[in-house]
Amino acid sequence: MKSQQALTAVQRARKPFLAMFGRTRVRLVACASAIAVGTALLTGAGGFGLASASASSSSGPTFYTAFSADPSPLDPDTFYEAEGELIMQSTYQSLLTFASNSSTLQPQLATSWTESKNGLTYTFELRKGVKFSDGTPFNSTAAKDSFERRAAMKGGPSYMVADIKSIDTPSPDKLIIHMIHPQSPFLTYLASPFGPMMESPTAIKEHTVKGDHASHWLGSHSAGTGPYVLTSVQPNVRYVLTANPYYWGPKPYFKTANIAVIPDFSTQQLEVESGQLTGVMHGLTTQAYDSLRANSKVEVQTFPTLLDTVLDVNPASKVFDNATVRAALRDALDNKTITTEVFGADASPAMNFYPTGMLPNGAVPEDSVYKPSLLASALKSYKGDKVTVGWSQDVADQLVANIVAATLQKDGLNATVEEIPAPSVINQLPTTPRLRPDLLVGDMNPDSTSPDTWARIYNYTNAPVNWQGASVPAADKVLDQAVTASNAKTALKLEIKAATMYRNSNYFDPISDDDDTMVFSKGITGFHSLITYQYVINLADLRR
Question: How high is the mean pLDDT of the chain?
Answer without folding.
Answer: 88
